[in-house]
DNA sequence: TATAATTTAATTGTACTCAATCAAATACAA
DNA sequence: TTGTATTTGATTGAGTACAATTAAATTATA
């Protein structure tokens, strides 16, 4: 065990996480670009398809993203007519994002993406489950 | 099982990968900013500390990054005196990156980072091993 | 109540990330 | 050899990411 072995790329756990994350997002690209969505926009829509209405703060908590990323992204989705952005009447600091009828209907365009991408990613049932459990374990430990 | 269940964030495998990757990189931030390195610069240096000399193409293969990311990053490291960039004499298309004496010595500043970050990431020995194996399984399957 | 502290988004600046394109060098084929 | 295809890195443009700062609104405190 050399003094610098811990600095070898092969001994890192974060690096394959970082690389695999980006590589899988690349698999999404052809499917998402047909819908003119980026991956970040896609997961944002995914939250909104489910909850319909959410504050920027709570959206950021769900996606692990801050307003520096979300503000311009949400403005793009707003221009496209998929969402509305309105200040809360109860608390003017809070911005509430809500999906529009059009944004909700757009879900039908995306419904097959998980299956199409899933079929590209070779992973056994067990490994997929373990991976899911380990990653959420990390995230829940308030990484 | 609803028609749109596959589109729920909680049913995605890519999302926790993407989120955990970024969250762990955030743990590196305070340690790396002391050295005035970004995470991407850090893993680049890691490769060079090990191999000393490599082409941009091979570096990109190791890091799963392309020249659009690497070119400006390598120019930054060059300005800092950590590396040199020279065209190969045998093939002028090829750019060879080599670590300098100064860049190599800088390794001593970074040697404790893996241990410091590692102690922040709560993960059992077994989960760490499984995670490593699964992620490299994905990457090797030429994701 | 006045003021201090906190919360929330937005903004700013730096640095990726990558698809797409380009240009130069090299390899290959007719 | 000459034209064609491939390889390689650089460039460009759009879109994140995120730390740090700002500003407005609200809450807590003296």
CATH C-level class of chain A:
Mainly Alpha
In one word, what is the shape of chain A? Answer: globular
CATH superfamily of chain A: Winged helix-like DNA-binding domain superfamily/Winged helix DNA-binding domain
Structural class of chain A: mainly alpha
Distance between the termini of chain A: 29 Å
Helix content of chain A: 55-70%
Q: What can you see in these coordinates?
A:
The structure is a homodimer of 143-residue chains. By secondary structure, the first copy, chain A, is mainly alpha-helical. The first copy, chain A, has a single domain (12-113), classed as Winged helix-like DNA-binding domain superfamily/Winged helix DNA-binding domain (Arc Repressor Mutant, subunit A), CATH 1.10.10.10. Chain A is 60% helix and 9% strand. The first copy, chain A, has eight helices and three strands. Chain A has helices spanning 14-34, 39-51, 56-63, 67-79, 101-105, 107-110, 113-118, 125-140; strands at residues 53-55, 83-87, 95-99. In chain A, strands 1-3-2 form a three-stranded antiparallel beta sheet. In chain A, strand 2 (83-87) and strand 3 (95-99) form a beta hairpin. Chain A is globular. The first copy, chain A, starts with 13 loop residues before the first helix and ends with a helix. At the A-B interface, helix 1, helix 2, helix 7 and helix 8 of A face helix 1, helix 2, helix 7 and helix 8 of B. The structure holds a DNA duplex (30 and 30 nucleotides).
């Amino acid at each position: 065990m050399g003094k610098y072995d811990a600095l070898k790329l092969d001994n890192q756990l974060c690096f394959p996480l970082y690389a695999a994350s980006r590589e899988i997002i690349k698999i999404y690209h052809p499917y998402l670009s047909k819908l003119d969505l980026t991956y970040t926009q896609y997961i944002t829509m995914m939250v909104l398809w489910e909850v319909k209405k959410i504050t920027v703060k709570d959206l950021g908590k769900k996606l692990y993203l801050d307003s520096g990323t979300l503000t311009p992204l949400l403005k793009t989705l707003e221009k496209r007519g998929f969402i509305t952005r309105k200040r809360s009447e109860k608390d003017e600091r809070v911005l509430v994002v809500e999906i529009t009828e059009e944004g909700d209907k757009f879900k039908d365009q995306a419904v097959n993406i998980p299956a199409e991408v899933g079929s590209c990613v070779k992973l056994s049932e067990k490994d997929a489950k373990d991976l899911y459990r380990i990653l959420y374990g990390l995230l829940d430990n308030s990484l």
